[in-house]
Amino acid sequence: MNQQLIKTAQAYSKQGFSVIPTTQQKIPILPTWRSYQSRPMTQEECVEHFKKAQGMGLLGGGKMKLTCIDIDLKNDLSGDFYQRLCAKVPTELFEKFYIQKTQNNGYHWVFSCDTVEPSQKITRRLTTAEERHQVYMENFENPLTREKAFKIVQNFNDVCIVESRGEGAYFLVPPTRGYERVQGKIQKLSEEEYQDLFHILRSMDEVNKVRKNDTRFSQNKTDWKVSPFQDYNSKADSLFLLESNGWSVVGKRYGKNIRLKRPGNSSAHSGIYDSDTRIFSCFSTSASLDVNRGYTASDLFTEFSCNGDIGLAYSKLVNEGYGLKA
Is the pTM higher than 0.85? Predict the structure, then answer.
């Protein structure tokens, strides 16, 4: 195993990739492993550092500008999340990924891109009542956490299925035990392809599809058959809202994704509107919108017309006749 690890480490390093030795439990052996973020190991360093290693980590970011999309299927309750995700990714983009299976039967999609971001949680699902009950009981039965059990479960609202590993992170690769190559080699994505991928991943995030409760106004679900927000989402034109606030349409991609550019932006585009899901995703950190969420029409109305005040948006929509009473 060690000879295989050494040879693989040398091969990666020769191509310019940064690798580090790890234990089987994914823990780096070298306390100074971050120093290799900016440069690959020499051939001699590979021999020295990997002779006692049990695994190999590939560093995100760095010279090769790597990103890994970590798909953790143990958190998938549907049983077909991976198939649904793959079906959303255009073939020409999917074929650019280096794909490997992980020791937890998940997948890593690895690629290079000039755009490299810190690691982030991208696709989450809401926890079930059974999961929250289990967490509550586990903490209640522990004398050290009993008094905090209720607070702990109140914060246990979602679990992550897909996260990225970028600048400053690492992920294990073969020949580490439990990791297996599935397809391809590491290729470079364009900035547009990178943004398309993250847009697809965010479109499957359950948390962003659910409006959080706001104590500034009363929205008793029993009052509405169709809430003002839902009614507005079904009737409003998100593109009109965006264009009315200085955004401009610059083109389409894959037939349904409409690309837009924020006001005053000189880059090719700053966000994507998915005509199927009717969700807008912003990619520019210079815009007033959050890059970590998807925006419905009512979300855009709240941001643009009510300065982010959900209570004010609710009142305005009610006054304008949106919503169907129960």
Answer: no
